[in-house]
Amino acid sequence: MKTIEKNQTYTVTIDDLTHEGLGVAHIDRFPIFIENALPNEEVEILIVKTGKKFAYGKVLQRLNESIDRVPVKDMDLLRSGIAPLSHMKYEYQLAFKEEQVKRVMNKIAHMPEIPVFATIGMEEPYAYRNKAQIPVRKMNDQLATGFYRKNSHELLPIEDYFIQDPEIDKAILIVRDILQRFKIKPYNEEENTGFLRHIIIRRGHYSHEMMVILVTRTAKFFQGNRIAEAIQSELPEVVSVIQNVNSEKTNVIMGKEDILLAGKETIEDQLLGKTYRISPQSFYQVNTKQAEKLYQTAIDFAQLKADDVVIDAYCGIGTIGLSFAENVKHVYGVEVVPQAIEDAQYNAKINGAENVTYQIGKAEKVMKQWEQLGIQPDVVFVDPPRKGLAEEFIQASAELSPDRIIYISCNPATLARDLERYGELGYQAQKVQPVDLFPQTYHIEAVVLLSKAV
Ligand code: SAH
Asked: Is 410 a catalytic residue?
């Protein structure tokens, strides 16, 4: 076997894609991962990094072009990882995601027979994100906004983020210029000095209400209120300006403390015709239109009946359960972030839902408490973060013995692992529907119906 060394060049043919959408080529069966390269393309590459089991290559020249390729709008969208699939035709992105789900259903869940449907895509698969989290750094003595270069913390200045609501892109620049005018010091990550770390903006897809969160290293914010006033006067959609304090040397963007600088503490938006209040610390689906399709798929899978008792686990601000509360007997929601539960309680009220009960806590613990209280759910919805369900949760949910479990997942690998476990406990996966919540990126969302074996 040839040894692959850094700085060598090769001509290779791409034969596969990684789950992150990198092209894969093999030299004597040794895999090379290559950005911006699609299956069947022949490319001349430079080896830029080598490891024991694989290497990374960079395209020097493309000798032919895949029929599934589209011109990349801006190379920074690939370099920064903002839109790592933006060199693929959208139809191809959807097929890629379906294929990724099929792979894990086969290899991890060992259920090749379970149907995986074609990914539900967007008509206009860009400009969809209702939230931006933008790092602020000093560049050429100016306050700059942009995105990190992939696998680094080097800032690439960016103005058009392609997948974000364009009104958010505009607002970032206006806020940046106001901060510059007030001579605000950008954060310095190496030294953990400076002041302004991130600008976070949320904009309601239907309401157009905007929230601006300024994440700062220290609490004292000289002229904070005047800056907030300037933001509101230059951006009339902004109804909420919040300072969030994060003094830690960490990759986590937000700290725990929120300080109101101007306007109100929350914004509102709509989903499937219901209204929701959203706090700075609460999770809210970033692609509103596709979230509606995702929820509708989950609801259709659940075949809800008027006397059903339903658990909405990992409920956030209550959006899944409140979408159908009027059609069932009772909804129990559990969520670990206290502000999100406060939002959920408020949201139940403004949408006239009286048959809902919310509990702050870890889902895996609260499920056991509910079991002890004798709650007997017919349907359990789960919508966990990327790490999937804890073993404790899977056991407790199976012991509650619901008829159906609806699993909404943002990570096919942990989904497949959990489906196998549910299979052992008598819950059989029936069908899988991927929904594209994150066009131009490799993130995959999927809904699964599980039924109790009879
Ligand atoms: N269903 C909601 C939220 C989904 S995101 C929606 O569609 O908007 C996942 C949620 O799980 C987040 O709100 C997160 O705060 C919450 N979470 C994470 N770990 C948890 C745990 N162990 N127990 C309960 N909730 C948890």
From this structure: yes
Nearest residue (CA) to ligand 1, atom 13: 316
Among 293, 297, 332, 336, say which to mutate for ligand 1: greatest number of ligand atoms within 8 Å of CB: 336
> Residue 116 gets which letter from DSSP?
B
Which of 319, 335, 407, 445 should be mutated for ligand 1, with most atoms under 8 A from CB? 335
Q: Which residue out of 24, 410, 417, 443 is catalytically annotated?
A: 410
Determine whether domain 97-122+272-452 maps to CATH 3.40.50.150: yes
Residue list, annotated binding site:
285, 314, 335, 383
Kindly write down the DSSP assignment for every residue of 244-281, as one continuous string: EE--SSSS----SEEEEEEE-S-EEEEETTEEEEE-TT
CA-to-CA separations, 424 to 280, 394, 420, 429, 431, in angstroms, rounded: 39, 11, 7, 11, 17
How far from the centroid of its chain's Cα atoms is residue 164's Cα?
Answer: 13
pTM passes above 0.90 = yes
314 lines ligand 1 (CB under 6 A): yes
362 lines ligand 1 (CB under 6 A): yes
What does the radius of gyration of the chain's CA atoms come to, in whole angstroms? 24
Strands 267-271 and 427-435: unpaired
Give the Å distance between the CA of 25 and the centre of ligand 1. 38
Report the binding-site residues for S-adenosyl-L-methionine. Answer: 285, 314, 335, 383
Per-residue pLDDT of the chain (454 residues; tens, 9 = 90+): 668 999 999 999 999 999 999 999 999 999 999 999 999 999 999 999 999 999 999 999 999 999 999 999 899 999 899 999 999 999 999 999 999 999 999 999 999 999 999 999 999 999 999 999 999 999 999 999 999 998 888 999 999 999 999 999 999 999 999 999 999 999 999 999 999 999 999 999 999 999 999 999 999 999 999 999 999 999 999 999 999 999 999 999 999 999 999 999 999 999 999 999 999 999 999 999 999 999 999 999 999 999 999 999 999 999 999 999 999 999 999 999 999 999 999 999 999 999 999 999 999 999 999 999 999 999 999 999 999 999 999 999 999 999 999 999 999 999 999 999 999 999 999 999 999 999 999 999 999 999 998 7
CATH number for 8-69 (one of 2.40.70.10, 3.40.250.10, 3.40.50.1110, 2.40.50.140): it is 2.40.50.140
Nearest to 133 by CA among 336, 283, 293: 283
> If you measure from the C-alpha of residue 383 to the centroid of ligand 1, how many angstroms do you get, rounded to a whole number?
7
CATH 2.60.40.3880 for the 131-271 domain, yes or no = no
